[in-house]
């Protein structure tokens, strides 16, 4: 038996390339909790958990993710069989309620270790990849329409993205609709325009918003109302042509079943971290498929590490009708992988190699770690 010998965590704080203005927070850094698991045969696995804007997006913060792992999850897993990811998932679910991002970070490291020991990519552990690359959206969220338009035009010209998700919900609804109209007019048929309201609207706001957005040629609206407004989501889903996507409302398979049952979304934004790991995300995907709901691979703005893990899972999915937004590493000023993930021709490529196919750059980890990395760098004069 390959035992779990050691579980280490570290928080990295990596600046974003520009302020990322969301309805609930403006991000200027992303904090990623990295997990490294050492196994008794000398093998290792790495994982990552992120949230967005501290505690403004959900109930877990970078600090709570780290402490849930260090204080509760790691001590319970030590000595257990590293080859049975299912046993670890079951144990984590038993001893820790919720805390899906913390569980995800650990679970990714277990899959990565298992893949490396078996000499196969993680996609193989989920039945094998059917895609080498997937379409990838970019989020326009500078907080300024002119800057967003220039950014979109550059992305189209350089063939990096032709799907744009606009972050709205901070301004009054009519101003938001005017902002979307302007951007759609500028990009025309060269790009798909969608929006994410991050729960900011009331049902009344959303009725105005969805009407205006669909008239503007916007194709999809993500989580217009709070996660718990399931009947409002159902009304909006059936009341307008524009596709309605559930994001914050989807915290694992039980939510997916309830949302599908209530017809409270046309599309699922499947996030590995919000689902509670790759396995639970695969269950959310299965429920969406069975219910005839469209699929989209969402992100918690992870670094290349968890983005690689997500790509392995999503590469095994038959159809992602709405593509992916697995662009997390591109929002950060620096990449922490030795071989960054490839973005080309409007697609993101699934990393090759065993496990999740990601190798951390130790200098970058030393530089961005919260517990003194930069100080260490400064002392050594770099
Ligand atoms: C979200 O709510 O979907 C995903 C892309 C982005 O820019 O923010 C996230 C969060
Ligand atoms: Mg969202």
Produce the secondary structure layout.
Blueprint: E1 4-21, E2 26-39, E3 44-50, H1 62-77, H2 85-95, H3 100-118, H4 122-125, E4 133-135, E5 138-140, H5 145-157, E6 163-167, H6 173-187, E7 192-196, H7 203-215, E8 220-222, H8 230-239, E9 243-246, H9 253-261, E10 267-270, H10 272-275, H11 278-291, E11 294-297, H12 304-314, E12 343-344, E13 347-349, H13 362-368, H14 373-379
Helix pairs in contact: 1-2, 1-3, 2-3, 5-6, 6-7, 9-11, 13-14
[(2S)-5-oxo-2,5-dihydrofuran-2-yl]acetic acid binds at residues 52, 139, 141, 196, 198, 247, 298-299, 301, 325.
Task: Name a few traits of the molecule.
single chain; 382 residues; alpha/beta; TIM Barrel; 7-stranded parallel β-sheet; 3-stranded antiparallel β-sheet; 14 helices; 13 strands; binds [(2S)-5-oxo-2,5-dihydrofuran-2-yl]acetic acid; binds magnesium ion
Q: What does this protein look like?
A:
With 382 residues, the protein is α/β, with parallel strands linked by helices. It has two domains: 4-119 and 359-372, 2-Layer Sandwich (Enolase-like, domain 1), CATH 3.30.390.10; 124-349, TIM Barrel. It is built from 14 helices and 13 strands. Strands 5-6-7-8-9-10-11 form a seven-stranded parallel β-sheet. The longest helix is centred in the N-terminal third of the chain and has 19 residues, at 100-118. The radius of gyration is 20 Å and the shape is globular. The N and C termini lie far apart (43 Å). It binds [(2S)-5-oxo-2,5-dihydrofuran-2-yl]acetic acid (MUC) and magnesium ion. Magnesium ion (MG) is lined by residues 196, 198, 222-223, 247, 269.
